Amino acid sequence: DRSINKLFAREQQRLWELQQHLLKQLHHFEHHYSLKSIDFYQSYERGEMGDDMDFIEWAATVEMLHKVETRLVLLEGLAK
Are residues 62 and 33 in contact, defined by beta-carbon separation less than 8 angstroms? Predict the structure, then answer.
């Protein structure tokens, strides 16, 4: 039981660190383009932003952050 809890804790720590890294990347894009990520992503999904490499990376970062946050929620539920 303790081994599983240690594994959960280690994975949770890894995901928190990744989350912080992704949030920093998003902040960089938001500052550079003066646009919030949520607004950018909605426009990007509607095809209004084009396919500039920065936009592709920004969209991928938004998606990765969503996946990381989903995994964190799942891990927190399993750890209880």
Answer: no
Q: How far apart are CA 10 and CA 77, in angstroms?
A: 15
Helices (H), 34-52: 37-45
d(CA 7, CA 52): 39
Amino acid type, 2: R
| Residue 49 DSSP one-character state | S
Count H helices, E strands: the chain? 3, 0
Tens digit of pLDDT for each residue in 58-79? Answer: 999 999 999 999 999 998 887 6
